[in-house]
Every structure is written in C-alpha cells, then in structure tokens.
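Subject: Sanity check before I submit

Could someone independently write out the structure tokens for this chain? I want to compare against mine line by line before I put it in a report. The sequence has 400 residues.
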Amino acid sequence: MFDFSGTDIFSLLGLSVNANSTTEPSDLITPPSAFNSSSAFAESLPSLETVAVPQNVTTLQLNTDNSQTELDTLSIDPITGQTLSLATGTLNSVRPYTIKPGDTLSAIAQRELGDANLWGEIQQEDGSTLTETEARNLEVGQVVYLVDQNPTVAPPTSTIRPYTVKPGDTLSAIAKRELGDTNRWREIQQEDGSTFTETEARSLEIGQVVYLVDNDLTNIGSFDLNQIYSVVTPSLLPYAQTSIPLILAETKRSGITDPAQIAYILATTEHESLLGRWMEELASGSQYEGRKDLGNIYPGDGRRFKGRGYVQITGRSNYQDWSNRLGIDLVANPEKASEPEIAAKILVQGMRDGTFTGVGLSNYINGSRQDFYNARRIVNGLNVASKIAAIAQNYLTVLS
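---
Independent answer below. Compare away.
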C-alpha cells in the first residue's frame, strides 16, 4: 500500500532539485536568442507555459525502504537500482509523460493533447496541477500526467460481483438472498456474461462461481452520491464516480451501516489508490522477489503478486488468502485483484474483518467511539494518520 508520508512529491517522483546545482535562472527559460535583443531581460521573460526544460539537468532519484505491503518510491527500484516503468500503472483516462530536453508545458499539451491551452491541466502524481514555481522548474526525466479530454469514465448504473455456490444453493434462493427477488435468478450470469439455461441452472456445483448483477447504483441506501462527490478533489472525480458507488454497495452487502466507518473506508481508498486512479502498483514488483514474509517463494512471485486494488494487496500469501475468502482464483489470475468489483470486496471486507493488520473498523470506530487517527492501524502505521483522519472527517460531513 502506498505511503507517501514525510516525502514531498518532488522527491517521491525523483524530481528533487539539487541544492548544490549551479543552474541559473536563465538556464530554465527559452534560450536568449528567442528574445528581442533590444528588450531588457526582465521585460522579455517568457510566459509560464513557454518555460523550457534545461537540457543538462540530471534527475535525482530517491531511495527508501519498503514495508511488507507498500512501495515507498515510484521512481527507482531499491533492489535493482533500475528506473521503474510508469507505463505499468492502471491510469484510466490519465497517462504518464516523461519530460524530454526542450519540453515546455504548452508544447507537451499541443503535441499530446492537441491544444496548447491545456497545459494548465497537466498533473502531478497526486492529481494536483503544477504551480507556477513547479512549472518553471521542470526537469528532464520528470514524469507528469496528461488528462485525456472528455474521458469515457461515467458513473456506473450497475455492478457485477462474484458469488460462490454453497451446499443447498439454487439460483432462485441466491437471487432472493443476494438480490432481493427470487424472479431475478434469470439475471445471474456465468463467467462469459451469458445467463443460465434451465439445464445449467439445475446442474449447479458446489464451489462454482456465478455473477450477480446489482442494478441502480445512483443512490445507495440513504446516501446521496452528489453530496459525496462534492467533497472529492475535482481531479479525482472521474475515478470517484466509478469507485464510490461500488464501495458503498459493498459496505451495504457487508453489513456496514455506521457512517463513520464508511467515511473511513472512503478516506483510506482516497489515500491508498486515489479513489481508484492507481489500481495496479506502478513499480514492476521485482522489489518483492524472494520475500518469504509475503509468501513469495517461487521465481517471479514478486512481479506476479505486486500491489493491486484499492488497498494494493501484495504477495502470494495475500492473493491466496483472498482467493480462499472470495472463491476467486487470484493466484492464477492476479490481475483480477485490480478489477473494481473485486477490489471493493477486498477493501471493505478486509477493513471490516481486520485481515490486513489484525485489527478492524470496530476496534476504533464503533458507536460513540470515533478514533479516525488510530484507525490507520487497520491498514498500516500511523505516519499519515492525521491526513487520512482529516479526509475521513470530510466524508463524514456528507454521510451523516
């Protein structure tokens, strides 16, 4: 699970400015030949969007230690020293771009987004846009994120979730218990999306996985999605419109009704994966190779079982554990942990049951007790506890 505490975003992405650098301000702007020689230098400073990248800057890399469940640096593999490929991340409508010599924000926007005026929408890793100071200090090798216009991400109106057939189950009984209507048994799907024929319905097997379609996620329970979206950082809204309905639906199925507990689940999601912006760890996973404490005992396990989902579960042991809990083979198909519906189940059930660290939501948020600070122990240590507590409080204001 990502944890960026104590690290500014420049260091995190390997964008730290060298304190000993001799680079002068004039190295950070368009070459003097581009200016009118009759104008004073101060009068001919370029506009922000035309500030060019110096061509001789070496990007500093940050080395940090890794915990058992999180990657603390996105720029360099602490084991091999190799630069990490950011292209492995699941970015939805946002894609990474690596700064090249001579680049300016407007040039990048024109070339990559088709409109130079969109330079102000180019983002950093945390979803924020660049300040004027940051834009004037672009460095070769720096990674920025381009938001494709008119993304196709839309609020879902239904969600599909897996269900493992148990002894005595029938499709009508499953439909009654899980969907609230016996007659909806014909909507239950097989893995390929097809519904069951009568012959197939009579031949269910224990352990078989079927898929349930939940309809109408526009307003889940007593919660107003529009009010919840109002407290989401605008740059994260496209991801929130997918993740939050799924997460709320899963809290309802999992018996979580306390608004404070739900607020903390949403806050954790926002911190760990930016509400689903990062559904797969950006690093290759090679730093987890040979980690027996994660159950990685076979060659290739590190890369195969790297962090995925809303809380970035990591390691063969965790994938096996959730395979057992959900009845889905995540060991054979680890990429399924990135699927929003499955990721929501892991997030909600894991925080409810305390599977991540041994303590769950009820240990800190239960009835009159509302300890958002120490609730961070459900997923990780307390180093960013205050930040997540503040996010949870924001969500609670619109959930109560």
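---
OP: Matches mine. For the report I'm noting this point. The chain has twelve helices and six strands.
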